[in-house]
Structures are given as structure tokens and as C-alpha cells.
Amino acid sequence: MLSCFGLNGSKLRSESLNGCLKKRLQKTTTMKTMKTMKTQVVQQNTKLLTSNLQSHFFNKINQKIETKLSPFITINSIFSFQKQQKQQQFKRFYAVNSKKQIGYDLVDFPQERIRNFSIVAHVDAGKTTLSNRILEYTSTIPKQGSDELYLDKLQVEKERGITVKAQTASMFYKYENEVYLLNLIDTPGHVDFAYEVSRSLSACSGAILIVDGTQGIQAQTLANYYLSIENNLEIIPVINKIDLSSAQPQLFAEEIENVLGLASTDCLMISAKTGSGIEELFEAIVKRVPIPEGDSRKTFRGLLFDSWFDVHRGVVCVIKVVDGSLKKGDKITSIGTKKEFEVFDIGILHPEQISTGALYTGQVGWFVAGIRNVGEARIGDTFHLNSSVVTPLPGFKPLKSMVFASLYPGDGEKFEVFGDAIAKLTLNDASVTARKENNEALGVGFRCGFLGVLHMDVFLQRLEQEYSISVIPTVPSVPYKVLLNSGEEIEVQIPSLWPAIDKIKE
Predict the structure, then answer these.
(1) What ranges in 219-314 are assigned the alpha helix state H?
(2) Strand 345-349 vs strand 364-368: parallel, antiparallel, or unpaired?
(3) How far apart, in whole angstroms, are the C-alpha atoms of residue 47 and residue 34?
(4) E strands along 49-177, which residues?
(5) Angle between helical axes of 278-288 and 127-137 (0-180°, round to 10)
(6) What are the residue ranges of helices labelled H in 320-452?
(7) Which residues make beta-bridge pairs with 409?
(8) What is the pLDDT of residues 2-30, one digit of tens each?
(9) Peptide bond into 351 cis (omega under 30)
(10) What angle (nearest 5°) sits at the alpha carbon of residue 383, between those of residues 382 and 384?
């Protein structure tokens, strides 16, 4: 019994001890697990707290930065918004004008109520600014501020701040209960673009001669004055920039009378920047600019004085109707090329292209006749109806090139594209001469003549900007006349053609 009891008691104690150990081990494991979980929770809370603190800190910094920069951000936003509004305003303005056309029928404007005039002056005298004020005053364009020069359309003009291409704009002005059709031509002022001025004056009856109120009469003032006299134009002297403190309008009015022979009492005092004196200028245009010459009873005869190439419509011709009228659908002939065309579209520049269906005696406008060859639209040419015979109008006296340079394409394989670009650009700038030449090193190119170094520089820039052409120009030079010992006189334009010294007399 005892042995049995002893054995059984030892077994019971062993099982009890094992149970206690298991319970203690489970408790220890549970405590470790709880400790690990607590550590993880603490770490998570720490990370969350750190993240919140960092977020709060950076939010505070961002708020301070935004507070400091908010005036600048607001100003930039205002400028951006104003620019977008101005662009949308222009789009809406011309969209409405194109839809409603011009509100007038051009047949209702006889020669007595047409005035064709140009603005001429020295460089930086305020021609284009005055053109802007005139267009704004007649509501031809919306008011946009003195820093926006609408008629300077070329990129090179905007970058350089000068006018290199004459621009035409027609507008309507009411004076003493009569509506007048005014045709304005804004011209360049630099001597290198004098050909633009001479062509523009041929389509006008009067000229506004601007004199800088702080500088007085300058070189191109005199040159443009004599050009206007040669074209028998009525000259209206205008002294600009009278709003400046350094202006001396009375002194320069006397200078105009002494040098140019124009009465000082006829000088108008204006400020193209502020718009002062613009109303008096319009009155002078209506009263003093002569009505355009021509006979409305004769058959159509028109003078081509400007053109450009449109990739969709071909050559766009700008003409002055001297006699008769030209309508959409008319068959016309060029006297210079003997080519026949049909007028597909016709209208005025207001200042954008507006179709009117017809142009009448004394009016200035454009037409499209499917001309694709730029050589068929020569500046100074006369157009007439196929069924009539007319006397050609006097063309333009070609100006002599003063500076010569050879131009070669950057990629020799694109010579045809290069030649086509030069042909189209010379259509828009007829004072440039170009002929093919071959160079052993550079290949086939063109020997071009320009009116000056600036003229050449602008031409090259337009080739690159408007036609994406890479050009390799040679150093500009002037031609030399050489008298040989044999008595023969030759003209040398390229240094490589210079004769041997022992053959030169002078």
C-alpha cells in the first residue's frame, strides 16, 4: 500500500510541477508579447507625432512664404489675366468685324469722301505710335495702350523696335455728318528701307510729316520731305512728343518754316503717346489732303504697290484703283507679264483682311487671283480687265543696291527650298536683288544686293524666322569700278575676280 501510495504521490507532484512551469512560461511569453506590442505602439505614436509636428512646421513655413510672395503672385496673375483678356478682346473684336463685315458698302464712297495718306518721319519720331492712336480713335482696333504697336506685325520689328515693312489700314471717320474712307500707310523711317516709303507714297495724295519735338529736323525728315514733293503730295507738318518736358515745339515750328518752307502756323502740335491733338489732325486730313485722282467712268486700271505670299491663297496683291472698279469674278491681265487671272476674292485691310466684293475708284485694297508664281506679281505693275486696253501707269524707279553679299543654304541638299524662300521674301521686299552664283567651297547660292547693312541683317533674320532657313552669308562688300590699261571699265563685286595689279590703270 505504501509503495503504491508513494509511487502515485511522486507522479502527482511531477505533473503539478510541469503544470506550474507551463503556466509560468505562458505568462512570461504573454508579458514579452505585450511588451513588444507596447514598444511598437510607442514607436508608431512617436512616428505619427513626429510626422504631425513636421507637417505643422512645414505648413507654417509655407504659410509664411505664401504671405511674403502673395503680392508678387497677385501681380503676375493680374498681368497674365490682362494679357489673356486683351488677346480674347482682339479675337472677339475681329470675329465680330469679320462676321458683320465693315457696316458700309464701298460703292457709297465716291472720290470726294476718300483720303489716302501716309505717315513719314525719321527713326523713332513716333510714326507707328501715331498710327495706333489713329486706328484707336476711329475704333478700327480696340484701345490697347501706348506700348502695343499693332501695325508692327513682323517678329523682327517687335524684337528690334523699328518698322521695316510698310503697312496699310483702312478706316471710317465721321466728320460734319459725312462718313469718310481713310486709307493710312505706315512707313519705315530708316534710310535702308527708303524703297518701302517711295512705293507707299505712290498710292497716296497726302503725307503727314512728323518732326520729333525734342530733336527737330533730322536726316530722314529731309529725305522723306523731298520724296513727298516728288510725288506731288500735300504735306501736313506735325510736331510730336509735346508731352515731354524737353520738347520745344515753337522753336521747331520756326525751323520747319525756315528749312522746309512750310508755314509754322500750319504745324500741328500732338502727342501720339497721350492722344493729345489727334482730333485736330483728323480735321486737317479731311480738309487738306486732296481727293484721289482717277475717272470712275473708265474701265478698271490699278497699280500694284505691295504684295506678300500666303501658303493657302497664293500671292495677295495690294493695289490702288486708279480708274473704274474691280469686282470679284472679274478677269484681269497684268501688263508686265501678259498673264490673265480671275479675281477670287477682294477687299480692304481694316486692318485685317475684310472681303468687300469690290473696290472702286480711289480706294486702296487687296485681291487674290490664284497667283502662285511670285514672278507674276511685280511691284509697280498695272492690272486691267481682259476686255480693255489701257495705258500703263508709271511704275517705281528701282533703287540701286549699295551692299552685296553671297548667301548659301546651311544644308546644300535644300537649295530648292532655300531658293523658294528667297523668291517669296523678295516678293515682300522688292528692293532686294538676287542672282544665282556658284562657289567652289560653299556650292550654289545667291549673290544678293541690299540698300544697307541693316537691310541685309533684317533680311537674313526674316529668312530664319519666317521660313526656318539656315543661311551662310559672306562678308558684305561694295562693288568697285576698275579701269583697265586697255581702256575697258569693269565692275568687281567679288574679291576673287579682282584683276592683276599690272592690268589696272585706276
Answers:
(1) 219-230, 249-260, 278-288
(2) antiparallel
(3) 20
(4) 114-121, 167-175
(5) 90
(6) 415-428
(7) 471
(8) 344 444 444 444 555 455 555 555 555 55
(9) yes
(10) 125
